[in-house]
Amino acid sequence: MKNETNPWYCLDMENVISLREKHILSGKLEQNIVCDLNDFSWFDRIDFRLEDGIVFTAGGLFYFFEKRQMQYAQIPMAVVGIIFGAANESIYYTEFAVRSFHIYLCTVVFACVNKAAFIFLQAMGKSAASTMFSMVREIVFGVGFALLLPYFYGLNGVLYSMPVSDILTFMISVVIIVSTYKQLSNMDAKKQDRAKKLTGKPA
User: Fold this and answer.
1) How many CB atoms lie within 10 A of CB 86?
2) What's the alpha-carbon Rg for the chain, to the nearest Å?
3) Taking a C-beta distance cutoff of 8 angstroms, is the pair 94, 77 a contact?
4) Which of 5, 52, 152, 180 has a Cα-to-Cα distance from 199 of 20 to 30 A?
5) Residue 38 burial by CB count (10 A; 0-12/13-18/19+): exposed, middle or buried?
6) Cα 110 from Cα 61, distance rounded (Å)
7) CA gap 126, 151 in Å, rounded
8) Cβ(45)–Cβ(9) below 8 Å
9) pTM for the full model?
């Protein structure tokens, strides 16, 4: 490729790398790495700097793995190993970090709705309610479940604490949003009635 701009790493099996080096000239910033994607020691060979970012490309790769392997193991482990500096840690550390990703991200939609509910309440002039609502999620549910769930689920209980908090907070969010919507509808109806009485015409 004769790349002279960005570092480029080619990961593949030994026979493929041998053919590549025999027939394709490498640029100064290109490096071929013989590896098995199931062996994450190749993380150590990547010169990664967070401020520069990183891009992964894969061609003719995914059909060698089951979908679940790529979706729930290979890609998250690469992110954890390179970006968060877990490349030199035990594989158990990496697996726990990947499990943390899965558990925390499973309720990210609920978390977004909850944040929107906090902002909605503030916009409606209900800053006290918004603050209390936020404290219920972060302190009452978040801390409470982080202390309670490990008794039943061990270390995983700590990971479950925030998803459970987000789900319960989401339920409260739905109640608050529906209640507020009804209040606004009633206020609008009363406004229409007053305008009709004063002018004889709807507002």
Assistant:
1) 20
2) 27
3) yes
4) 180
5) exposed
6) 34
7) 37
8) yes
9) 0.53
Token pair in block for residue 199:
């002018």
Residue with tokens 């916009």: 123
Measured from the Cβ of residue 127, the count of other Cβ atoms closer than 10 Å reads 12
Token pair recorded at residue 19: 């053919």
Nearest by Cα to 28 from 2, 65, 50: 2
Burial of 100 (0-12, 13-18, 19+ CB in 10 A): middle
The closest alpha carbon to 12, from 55, 49, 59, belongs to 59
Q: Which has the closest alpha carbon to 48: 4, 81, 5, 12?
A: 81
The helix (run of H) or strand (run of E) holding residue 32 is: strand 30-34
How far apart are the C-alpha atoms of 149 and 143, rounded to whole Å?
Answer: 10
- CA 187 to chain CA centroid, Å, is 39
List % helix, strand, coil for the chain (3-state, nearest 5). Answer: 65, 5, 30
- pLDDT in 10s for each residue of the chain, 203 residues: 556 677 888 888 888 888 888 888 777 778 888 887 766 677 777 777 766 767 666 666 666 666 665 555 555 555 555 455 545 555 666 677 777 777 877 888 888 888 888 888 888 888 888 888 888 888 899 899 999 999 998 888 888 998 999 999 999 888 888 888 888 788 877 787 777 777 765 55
